[in-house]
Amino acid sequence: MASASVKDVAALARVSIGTVSNVLNRPEIVAPETVERVTLAMQKLSYVRNEAARQLRVGHSRALGLVTLSGSNPFFTELTTAAEDCAAAAGYSVIAGNSNERKDREAGYLNLFEELRVRGVLISPVGNVVPRLRRMRERGIPGVLVDRVSSDLSFSSVSVDDVAGGELAVTHLIESGRSRIAFVGGPTGIRQVSDRLKGAQQAIAAHPGAGLEVITLDGLSVQEGIRAGTEFVERPRSHRPDAIFAANDLLAIGLLQAIFMQGHLAIPQEIALVGYDDILFAGASVVPLTSVRQPSGLIGETAVTILLEEAEDADLEPRQVVYQPELVIRASSS
Amino acid sequence: MASASVKDVAALARVSIGTVSNVLNRPEIVAPETVERVTLAMQKLSYVRNEAARQLRVGHSRALGLVTLSGSNPFFTELTTAAEDCAAAAGYSVIAGNSNERKDREAGYLNLFEELRVRGVLISPVGNVVPRLRRMRERGIPGVLVDRVSSDLSFSSVSVDDVAGGELAVTHLIESGRSRIAFVGGPTGIRQVSDRLKGAQQAIAAHPGAGLEVITLDGLSVQEGIRAGTEFVERPRSHRPDAIFAANDLLAIGLLQAIFMQGHLAIPQEIALVGYDDILFAGASVVPLTSVRQPSGLIGETAVTILLEEAEDADLEPRQVVYQPELVIRASSS
DNA sequence: TGGGAGGATTGAAACGCTTCACATGACGAT
DNA sequence: ATCGTCATGTGAAGCGTTTCAATCCTCCCA
Q1: Selection from B182, B178, B40, B122 nearest residue B302 by Cα
Q2: Which of A33, A265, A327, B138 is the 20 to 30 A CA-CA neighbour of A320?
Q3: B108 contacts on A by Cβ (under 8 Å)
Q4: Global pTM?
Q5: Where are the beta strands (DSSP E) in chain B?
Q6: What is the tens place of the pLDDT at every residue in A171-208?
Q7: Does residue A92 register a pLDDT over 70?
């Protein structure tokens, strides 16, 4: 049974299809009793508007596209949920996908969003998506960068000061008496990672006597953390750092597993550990994790708000919103 | 600048629009050199197909809808990722939303999916969605239940035997010497919760001397777990259970925080703890968590496969796939 | 009584695509 | 030379909306 269309509703309510469309979109301009008759007809036929037809006519959809970096990182899950809620309040839905840090998946989602003619795109990019976003903007699809600042400031962005976060973390480690510090991070191509590293380096530079070892990994997962942690455990004590700053909490949890549970090294006594993101599980890990907290929900909301404004008015100046991170100190570092 | 349409491409390539559509959809029936000319024209104009128009014409979209119970539960995140991958392999995209255990949000997503004319719906339901799904199926949108069996078997489902899981968990607790066991779970309206409880009760019934206390909560979050755990800690020792079976890992982690970290009761010595889902963080929590593992990815894949088959052929008999859970024993219970 | 004003409704065009019956032409078989 | 076949390409219809100019009433005022 094919579903009913405006035409069927119009026939049943004995009005024109134009009127049906009006009660759907501007009920205030049609006579109350007509509204009622049409509404009744819609119920009888259990009419459901065909979004594709609407979209074809008006030129764009009621959906926003969102590409995040990782599906397993609760930071992005929280961000996504907040974005959905905020969008829903404005009558939009969010189509969310995660690139898992792969450029091909990222490109795949952008293709999809373009075919779908989404109203706008939120993205936490892996590769250099700015040229691509520029092309999309020329066609009326604005973009907002999330958790990342556009290098040339031509796009709005909502981010957290990752340099400050890195500095916060490492300064804390130094001030609590550590000096041989290791930074463990994912591909340095990811801005968040390189910024956190930069912050770490600044903290080191400000404190003579402290040194930084940089371990570069291929990703930011628990698995990678375990791998890196195992490597630390295998070293002779004299070559081990006395503190580790991990580029995110998943990594930190992996390090914790390898160092504390498998390697039996005391945390924080032998090695102190600081993570990043302050995910829900950070406070509940084997040794509760000191972590740099980012306002994930707020980021999502702000990004959606800005995106919708730009969708309304394409000539808006790009804005850069930067939130400040906050250090949450727990047992893993004190 | 409005984006190019088939008409523009056709004009530039000096063919009819029908031919352009053919190179898009059945390139094998058009002459190779024509294909090339058209492809070139598409590149020149950076043509992007308008999915809404395509969909309007063919009657349904290339998307699947997915509603999960919770966005913060990694079990569903893993399931979603697997479903996305599986759908992508078949040329479909997944629009995922989570109800956060709220019926209104669940209904909202179903509305959206119906307006979008998705090809099919995967759902892990909160309320009784069967009548709703039935209506959608009459209109050509099949549905598959995920992590839940349809009460009347009129829909296909992919689930895990939650009764067996509950039995597994509690039998393990009893066999390791506990007898005063508490079940802590979210709203009993959720099938997963009531099934796990039923399994727990079966295990108790099979072992004379063991007793079960049932604590019912409003949700399955870390927060709720902390609340319940605090209550246990405040009790006099004689009224405390010697083991807790939590309906999921988030709850268990909350319990852990309240009992072990705030309440300073030894786990597992004073209270043993078993969770459910074996999420990524279970093995890395304060006290590594014994948990019942479900094949989350496999569930997602299977569900998508079945759904797509039913989308092809509406007259397929509904199938019930039930996977068996597995107990992963860690420090929190031994 | 004629004429506006203005509210309510109508009807048709257009959005961009797919589909399908049909046209065209080349070529081999008869 | 005629016909059928096959490969290729064409053109128009139609999917379900929204939008907007045009029409139709009704009521009020001069």
Answers
A1: B122
A2: A327
A3: 88
A4: 0.87
A5: 63-68, 93-98, 120-123, 143-146, 156-160, 180-185, 211-216, 243-246, 272-277, 290-293, 320-323, 326-328
A6: 999 999 999 999 999 888 888 999 999 999 999 999 99
A7: yes
Separation between Cα atoms, residue A81 and residue A245, nearest integer Å: 28
CA distance A289 to A282: 5
Contact B198, B187 (CB under 8 A): no
Query: Could you read off the pLDDT of A103-138 as tens digits, one per residue?
Result: 999 999 999 999 999 999 999 999 899 999 999 999
- Closest to B75 in 3D by CA, of B246, B283, B297: B297
Is B56 within 8 Å of A78 when comparing Cβ atoms?
no
The chain A residue lying nearest B116, using CA atoms, is A51
Cβ–Cβ < 8 Å for A263, A229: yes
Tokens of A312: 């309304």
Q: Which residues fall within 8 angstroms of residue B95, CB to CB, at 6 or more apart? A: A93, A95, B63, B64, B65, B66, B112, B113, B116, B118
| Closest chain B CA to residue A83 | B97
B112: its two tokens: 């959206």
Q: Which of B258, B236, B246 is nearest to B170 (CA)?
A: B246
B259: Cα separation from own chain's centroid: 29
How far is B148 from A220, CA to CA, in rounded Å?
33
Measure, in angstroms, how far nucleotide C1 C1' is from residue A31 CA: 30
Tokens of A145: 């960068």
Contacts of B285 in chain A (CB under 8 A): 281, 284-286
- Cα dihedral sign for A155, A160, A166, A171? positive
Lowest mean pLDDT among A257-266, A287-296, B81-90, B231-240: A257-266
Distance from CA of B119 to the nearest CA of A (A): 13
Q: Do B3 and A139 touch (CB under 8 A)?
A: yes
Question: Torsion angle of alpha carbons A139, A141, A147, A152, nearest 10°?
Answer: 30
Residues of A within 8 A of B2 (CB-CB) are: 139-140
How much is the pLDDT for B1? 58
User: Which positions ≥6 away from A132 have C-beta within 8 Å?
Assistant: A107, A110
Residue A256: how many other CB atoms lie within 10 Å: 28
Contacts of A89 in chain B (CB under 8 A): none
Q: How far is the CA of A57 from the C1' of C14 (A)?
A: 8
> Cα separation of B316 and B58, whole Å?
22
CA-nearest of B47, B26, B27, B45 to B36 is: B27
Q: Which of A81, A117, A281 sits opposite B281 (nearest CB)?
A: A281
User: What confidence score (pLDDT) does residue A165 get?
Assistant: 97
Q: What is the pLDDT of residue B3?
A: 83
Q: Token pair for residue B34?
A: 């024509």
**Tokens matching residue B100:** 């956060």
Q: What count of Cα atoms within 13 Å lies in the side-chain half-sphere of residue A241?
A: 29
Selected for mutation to probe chain A from B46, B116, B330 (highest A CB count within 10 Å) is B116
Element (H, E) at A146: strand A143-146
Alpha-carbon gap, residue B95 to B108, rounded angstroms = 13
Q: What is the distance in angstroms measured between the alpha-carbon CA of B51 and the sugar C1' of C17? A: 8
Amino acid at B46: S
B173-191 pLDDT, tens digit per residue, is 999 999 999 999 989 888 8
